[in-house]
Amino acid sequence: ITPSGMLREIYKRSYNYWVETEGAVDIAAGPIFDIWGFGFKKASLPDAKQIRKALAISGMGRLVPTKEEALMPDGRICAKNLIADKDAKKMAGHFNPLDLQDNASGSLQLASGLPRLNFNSVAQGYSCDTFVRFLASIGAWDMLVDIGEIWCRGFNPKGQAWKVGIDSPVDGNISPGSDLSGIWQSDPIASPNIKTSMERAKAEQKNGSELKSGKNYQNGQGIVTSGNYRKFYIRDGVKYSHTINPKTGYPANNTLLSASIVAPTAEAADAYATYCMVIGLEASQQFIASRPDLEGCLIFSNPDGSMSEWRSDGFNLLKQ
Length: 320
Hints:
By secondary structure, this protein is an alpha+beta fold. It is built from 8 helices and 13 strands. The protein has 2 domains: 5-108, T-fold (Orthogonal Bundle); 121-320, ApbE-like domains (T-fold). It has a 6-stranded antiparallel beta sheet. Strands 5-6-13 form a 3-stranded antiparallel beta sheet, with no helix packed on it. Strands 1-2 form a two-stranded antiparallel ribbon. A hairpin with a 3-residue loop joins strand 3 (143-146) and strand 4 (150-153). Helix 5 runs antiparallel to helix 7 (266-279) and helix 7 (266-279) runs antiparallel to helix 8 (281-290). It is globular, with a radius of gyration of 21 Å. Mean pLDDT is 79; it is low at 93-112 and 208-214.
């Protein structure tokens, strides 16, 4: 194929997230998600051997950092050229390291050692930001864009801060907004097109400036929630969620039920919410606290089955 500029960009940015999260956010883990039934194939409950084989052909660590490095002279690209190791590149496509049987659909053939990319951890946030840039280019300031993930700036049509519901992470809560744990409120920043600084100050004070996080969200805020309460299945009384740790090949096993992240872009909020779900509660708390550009709300389970909540100081949560 001939990769578009957008495809090249999201690949490069995804590679950077893979480096930053030490492999927890990995778009090249497609085979792992497939064998668990959360990718592009129907499957479930792989055994240890299948997981090892999937890990062997997964991971951004096998690939070049940018697609420019994989381009052929005519500007096209093939999956084999994404592989960084020359010896592995020669072998790719000539053997099938995974010969799996899926009881539901017969033979499940995964890629013959070739990279299998799944941009799900960043694609919705990236798409949201792309649309935001378009709206900004035609002069829009006050906006809320929701394309699976959310980005907002300024005020809503009533002249108030934007409000976004945070779903309660209860298994089977498949209808967004039907069961909320709280409502997040944005930090409203008045348009720079307002003539005087006094008018801007009045507008911001009128619309919730007392809830300001103290972070610099002059260009808006992305907010994304990731959780394990919608995409999962249960086998023999055990819950298997779609949050897979790409480094181990197994579903993340921790107490975190959902992670809501506020960041300057929807893409960053998307990637970091996924990251938090993989690394768990304590590591997520430390990560959010270490980042001056992030706010977060983490909902987790207690040993008795009840739920508790942790949030950073600047996460503006309004209880219902």
